Amino acid sequence: MGKIPEILKNNDHYLKSCILYEVAMKKPIFDSYQSFCNVVGQDVMEYQDFEFWYGRFCEGELDFDYDRSMDSAEPKTLMDMSTKLMRKITDDLNPVERRYLRSMNQDLKKYIDSFPTVFENISLIAVENQLFWKLNENEYECKTEGDGCTFSKPKCLKIEKSDEDCYVCKKSEKITETYEKSYMKKGLEYLTPLFKIPNLQTNHLRFVSTIQSPELDAILPVPFYAKSGYIQEFNFDNLVQHLSILKAGFLEEFTIKYDPPFGIELLTKIFETEQFKQAQGVKFHCYLDINVEGLIHFSHLKQFFCAVNAIEPEEILRIRDIISTFKNLGKVRIQFDRNESPIRQFAEVLDEEIPEGPVESFTHRYQIPESNRTLEMTIRKISTHCYWIDIKV
């Protein structure tokens, strides 16, 4: 169609004829609307009106004088799409694209916020004069430089959806900028908005802090959704605080690291959390100053790792008897230190015959009473002073 005279732009029948022409050309509706606007003008007819007549003509309804007031149906809007269709649209968007879409109107914002934004992993490490974080494969770093700081970030952030239904950031070239502010202040400008994303989730969270920083103590939302977590703190109360932020039940396993050995008094603070009670697996990368009887606290877990200061050979039977009562157990590793090689002494207590000469490990199998399950216990020398007890059912 060529350009039409100005007088015809107010001719209702002529405009509908133009729409009918687009239908006859069998072009997609949006392409047809663009072509229509190019010919008759951008402001002659709203898309909603064009869509109405285009739809009628496609169905063979060619009455140009049809009274639309007889149609009581309200005009359809974007939010009238089915939940299934809206979910398909939002599922295909990465977190950056979702942020733009949710800013379009309040209805979209509420709808998009009702679905989680999932990262494969989020890592945050704070040490003296340096703040480092990682979103999947993209690394960021703020560190002190003179009276200000430098900030390194990916030059181009590429976010793609993985097969595991979460968002994976692809590696890219990094750029470094200099700012006249503290490394912590600059880092929080990026981190604070990240942790305010509604329904933010990660498959793995790593939180490490070796400094005293009130700003970081309160940075995670309450609750924070992580399937697994690694927490390392120099302050034990902060460690328990951050563990308690992770959503109990959603959190399947967690690891904690705390340098000084600690006993049952501090351990009880962890044992009393819902996170510990509902977890499936726990690792303590620290020495626990507890006796063998304290292992009963791990009875609900499928797997756990802990290190203790020392285990006497005669205690190995009690360890076996306690752990063999754990109904959900899959595997256990207990690390301990000794100043001499005790492998043969442990074997003697368990009535296991081992070859003469140096022995680095042996395996003991135990039929659990009133059960068809067998507990397998392997004691292994790792180094001069370090030994492992590996147990599986």
Structural class comes to: alpha/beta
Could you state the order of secondary-structure elements as H and E? Answer: HHHHHHEEEEEEEHEHEHEEHHEEHEHEEE
The largest pleated sheet is described as: 15 strands, mixed
Envelope shape: elongated
- pLDDT < 50 stretches: none
State the distance separating the first and last CA atoms: 78 Å
Q: In percent terms, what proportion of residues is strand?
A: 25-35%
Radius of gyration (Å): 32 Å
Q: Percent range for helical residues? A: 25-40%
Total beta strand runs? 17
Average of the residue pLDDT scores: 83
Oligomer: single chain
Pfam family, one: HTH_48
InterPro entries: DUF38/FTH_CAE_spp, FB224, Mos1_HTH
Protein name: Mos1 transposase HTH domain-containing protein
Q: What does this 3D model show about the protein?
A:
The chain has helices at residues 12-24, 29-40, 47-58, 83-91, 95-102, 106-113, 183-194, 214-217, 236-245, 264-271, 274-278, 316-323, 343-349, and strands at 117-127, 130-135, 138-145, 148-154, 158-161, 167-170, 174-179, 200-209, 225-233, 253-257, 262-263, 281-289, 303-308, 331-337, 361-367, 374-381, 386-392. Among the domains are: 6-76, no CATH class; 79-113; 312-393, no CATH class. The chain has 13 helices and 17 strands. 30% of the residues lie in helices and 30% in strands. It is elongated, with a radius of gyration of 32 Å. It has 393 residues and is of the alpha/beta class. Helix 1 (12-24) packs across helix 2 and helix 1 (12-24) crosses helix 3. The strands form two sheets. It has a 15-stranded mixed β-sheet that branches. It has a two-stranded antiparallel sheet with strand order 5-6. The mean pLDDT is 83.
